[in-house]
Design goal:
This is Tripartite tricarboxylate transporter permease. Keywords: Membrane, Transmembrane, Transmembrane helix. It contains 20 helices and two strands. The protein has a two-stranded antiparallel sheet. Helix 4 runs parallel beside helix 15. The longest helix has 33 residues. The mean pLDDT is 81.
């Protein structure tokens, strides 16, 4: 009953007109950015990070969560109507969703995606409400060795499991860790990798790096390369923007299965929603082969319903893992973790004790965001699609201006603008050569935690490194990491074998 009473207090805080405004604004911004080709929730959160420091923390994180969830809705709209998913998490939805649109069922496809995302996100929010306090209490048993193992799990899983090339993923991680150690060492007070420049004594701003890598790098990529690529054709949607009873009965089991598949991945640092969406799609495809009249390849509604539910249920659980453990499973979650630290807050058990009003208002806002997103997407998905008509040069020019203004407003330093451009060029080069960006962001965010935990563990054990592999929690985390890596290797071997055949 304590949980329900705390949630009720959270709703009382989230339903104030100020916080309702930030929920709606976040959902609108997230959906709009998700619809735009090449953009996503991680870029939106990165761009908003510099301008939200003037906001009260609860309002800022309520808006960030709306952007996080809304980005998934927008990605699916673009994938269904143009066969061009905005983010990797929407690829699985595109397979059958675009075929439904080609068959004249675009409104039904958009409705299936919106309801699936609502179901997955809403159920995940319920699970998070009851699971997050338990996870926070459980994390009190974590010591330096456990936190180092957790960070190592996140590093290796995000850099090697969800990337096509483990080498590129690890190199991207190394860049992030390298950026994280620039500045004065907090223990010895000795400058590290500063080239004797006082401008680097405070380190390289995480806000500058995220905005440069995720936003400015994308702008440079578009200006140099992507503008020469031919874009898909936007399909027009005609007909009823709702599902019949037969379609609901067809999609309902897939929504349930997709949600169940996505929930566990919300607490596993394996890159976000990409893996569960493909698993949900694959599960429905196997079930479809057993039917008398297989529908996959013709616009199967279950092939769209399951990935949508899986993606949002993973995102919902990811927010719980972020709040309770301080564990980011994707680039967007890593940026939100950085935002917590900018406000002087550390996710985990202390957050539930020191800022309960923020935590429970944020958890309550998840439910509100799901309802708001359903309202603005179910009947108005085609209106959002009109954003695709905005000329790309104007759109990306606006993003560039926003990048510069946001960074300068937070620091007032021309050096940070120079750093913004330099890191933006790095982001462009990584994009051109298919280096994943998420490991870099996660490496920079969790790098200080890993370093501090490693030092504390070794100091407490008088330099005995065996302390890093002692204890049930540490061994369990390393065991899960080994299993995750073995499954990743197996999947890649199987996929290459199929290609050879």
């Amino acid at each position: 009953m304590d949980t329900l009473s705390l949630l009720a207090d959270g709703f009382a805080g989230a339903l104030t007109w100020q916080n309702l405004f930030w929920v709606v604004l976040g959902c609108l911004l997230g959906t709009a950015v998700g619809v735009m080709p090449g953009l996503g929730s991680s870029m939106a959160v990165a761009l908003l990070l510099p301008v939200t420091f003037a906001l009260e923390p609860t309002a800022a994180f309520i808006m960030f969560s709306g952007v996080y969830f809304g980005g998934l809705f927008g990605d699916s709209t673009m994938g269904i109507l143009m066969n061009t998913p905005g983010q990797a998490s929407a690829i699985a939805s595109t397979f059958e969703g675009h075929k439904m649109a080609l068959a004249g069922r675009a409104p039904q496809a958009l409705a299936t995606a919106a309801i699936g995302a609502f179901v997955g996100g809403f159920i995940a929010s319920i699970v998070v409400v009851f699971l997050a306090p338990w996870l926070a209490a459980f994390s009190t048993s974590f010591g330096p060795a456990e936190f180092f193992a957790l960070a190592l799990f996140a590093f290796i899983a995000t850099s090697s499991v969800v990337t096509d090339s483990a080498v590129k993923g690890l190199l991207s991680l190394a860049v992030g860790l390298g950026v994280a150690v620039v500045g004065i060492d907090s223990v010895t007070g000795i400058p590290r990798f500063t080239m004797d420049s006082p401008l680097l004594f405070d380190g390289i701003s995480l806000v500058t790096v995220t905005v440069a890598i995720l936003a400015l790098g994308e702008v440079i990529y578009f200006a140099v390369i992507a503008r020469f690529k031919k874009e898909g054709q936007l399909l027009k949607a005609k007909g009823r923007p709702w599902l019949s009873r037969k379609e609901v009965r067809e999609a309902a089991p897939a929504w349930a299965r997709g949600t169940a598949i996505g929930l566990p991945f919300g607490v596993v640092p394996a890159g976000g929603s990409e893996i569960p969406t493909f698993l949900a799609y694959g599960a429905e495809r196997k079930l479809d082969r057993r039917r008398k009249d297989p529908q996959f390849g013709k616009g199967a509604i279950r092939g769209l319903a399951a990935p949508e539910a899986a993606g949002n249920s993973t995102t919902g659980m990811a927010m719980g893992a972020l709040l309770a453990l301080g564990l980011p499973i994707s680039a967007t979650a890593a940026i939100m973790l950085a935002a917590f630290r900018q406000y002087g807050l550390q996710p985990g058990p202390l957050l539930f004790e020191r800022a309960p009003d923020l935590v429970w208002a944020l958890l309550a806002s998840f439910f509100i965001a799901m309802i708001v997103l359903l309202i603005i997407n179910l009947p108005f998905a085609m209106v959002w699609a009109k954003l695709l008509l905005i000329p790309r040069p104007y759109l990306y020019a606006g993003i560039t201006v926003f990048c510069g203004l946001g960074i300068y407003a937070t620091s007032g330093s021309t050096f940070d603008l120079i750093m913004l451009l330099a890191v933006g060029v790095l982001g462009f080069l990584m994009r051109v050569h298919d280096y994943p960006l998420a490991p870099l962001i996660i490496g920079m965010v969790l790098g200080p935690l890993a370093e501090t935990s490693l030092r504390d563990a070794l100091i407490s054990a008088d330099g005995d490194a065996s302390v890093l592999v002692q204890g049930p929690i540490v061994l369990t985390l390393y065991g899960l990491l080994v299993v995750t890596l073995l499954l990743a290797v197996r999947n890649k071997v199987v996929s290459r074998t199929k290609k050879d055949v």
